[in-house]
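We were asked to recover a plausible sequence for a given structure. The inputs and outputs are reproduced exactly as logged, with field labels preserved.

PROBLEM: sequence recovery
POSITIONS: 118
GIVEN STRUCTURE:
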């Protein structure tokens, strides 16, 4: 294909950075919430909801990525957020069980050995 002066047309311009697969936003949010849930695991009111949300978003993101036929990436971030959310909830449960055990043990100790009055 040539023009009237015999010079072939210029090749099409490179399309730039935007044409590759996109990272799923839910995977990124899952990872961020997973990290925050591990940081705040000792607070049941913050760590557990963050961890649960990280797990849910990680599962949804993995499903979306697998159905996207390569147009979405970020499956490893989604799995990392999911795992971190599970770890935070597990650590929070261990901390809760340990705290209850200490409180119950202390309560029984006080019943069996009342404080001595002077």
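RECOVERED SEQUENCE:
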């Amino acid at each position: 294909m040539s023009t009237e002066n015999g010079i072939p047309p210029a090749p099409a311009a490179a399309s730039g950075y935007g044409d590759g697969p996109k990272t799923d936003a839910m995977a990124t949010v899952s990872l961020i919430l997973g990290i925050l849930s591990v940081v705040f695991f000792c607070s049941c009111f913050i760590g557990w909801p963050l961890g649960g949300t990280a797990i849910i978003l990680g599962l949804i993101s993995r499903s979306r990525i697998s159905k996207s036929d390569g147009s979405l990436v970020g499956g490893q971030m989604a799995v990392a957020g999911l795992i971190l959310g599970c770890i935070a909830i597990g650590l929070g449960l261990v901390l809760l069980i340990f705290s209850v055990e200490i409180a119950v043990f202390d309560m029984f100790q006080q019943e069996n050995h009342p404080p001595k009055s002077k």
